[in-house]
Amino acid sequence: MPPEVLWTVPETGMPSFADLGLPEPVLRALSAGGFTAPFPIQAATLPETLAGRDLLGRGQTGSGKTLAFGLALLSRLAGGRAQARRPRGLVLVPTRELAQQIVGAVAPYAKALSLTVTSVVGGMSFNRQATELQRGVDLLVATPGRLTDHTNQRTCDLSAIEVTAIDEADRMADMGFLPQVRAILDLTPTGGQRLLFSATLDGEVATLVRRYLHDPVTRAVASATAQVETMDHHLLVVDTTAKPRVVTEIAARDGRTILFVRTKHGVDRLVKTLRRDGIAAGALHGGKAQNARNRAIAEFKDGRTPVLVATDVAARGIHIDDVSLVVHVDPPADPKDYLHRAGRTARAGESGTVVTMVTPPERREVDRLTRLAGVRATSTEVVPGDTALTRITGARTPSGVPVAEPPKPAQNAPRKRSGSAGRGRPDGRRSGGGRSRRAA
Known about the structure:
It is a single chain. By secondary structure, the chain is of the alpha/beta class. It folds into two domains: 4-220, P-loop containing nucleotide triphosphate hydrolases (Rossmann fold, 3-Layer(aba) Sandwich); 231-393, P-loop containing nucleotide triphosphate hydrolases (Rossmann fold), CATH 3.40.50.300. Helices cover 35% and strands 15% of the residues. It contains 16 helices and 15 strands. The protein has an eight-stranded parallel beta sheet with strand order 1-8-2-7-6-3-5-4, sandwiched between helices. Strand 13, helix 14 (335-342) and strand 14 (352-358) form a beta-alpha-beta unit. Helix 3 (65-77) crosses helix 4 (96-112). The two termini are 24 Å apart.
């Protein structure tokens, strides 16, 4: 692995986007979007990536890395034109939600450069994606499973890829996707530029770097376990029998809130309880159909449901800047999960609060977990109606007036699916059925 360089703001101050060498149409689009100065991860990486170098980037979630690699890819592709089924740029991501977030983030800059961008993910129409690929796509954002389906069906040819970015590489490793990522990279030209962004650069990610990146430069803007200065961390120690009521009072607060629960069944149960008590809450987990997941995110983003209850499928794929509180209703499994959940708040310099619900039997393990995550959390014992609970989270008594359940989508007759694409998994792969697990 190359030595890691921790980037700091130069004595002359933060450079402008123009100083970084971005094309004029992109500069105009950035100005129109209200972006006046780059984030540190953008200033640290864009001069290297625009020069054509392979790069490893590490920054905390919410640090602006999507535009760091997105602007680099689009600028490198400017002036060219994609042929049918042969995209020119590729971004690989672990989840459908992250793919869609990236497409939305880079679309204005692609339009400014007269480039096309689309996503290829599971849970969406394979045939529609094949049609878009046939028209020609300059920048393709994809999950490994569905992209593999397209390459196997020969609806996508990766032989013209000029630059590839791999986002959330550590998450891909955790989800078992790296064998499939390697197979995809083997289909791209060996001389192409490659960028990799990850919270950690060890283990399987390091192996991927050694095999596929050539003389990469490494840039980091903060430690993977650094505590964000604008983020407050609290442990709320609560009796097991009182925990459901405490969670309900927290969810009744003003402000956009994400509650993380361990299982999809736990998510559905909690949403049902909250709505019964008068709290507009939405559910997000891997068992939901893609249109239901999209709807939950959209309603959370526009404020129709100020509370989102989610499993860890949302910990990396949801980028909404004004989430003021994250609650670990169930403590996360490991320090990385804690940090990625927590990263849904205090984004882009905003402030936020992270709360972990802790029952007495969980206390020792949660203390160890926060210590390994590099987090200093304040511990407080709480009960329903507690003034300390209100002070920390804004908790209040819910209205008790039930919120109507959203209408269920009409059940259509099953249709034969095109290709080998599956549904119900983050990357669109089939699951279960006793078949051997395909490389992810």
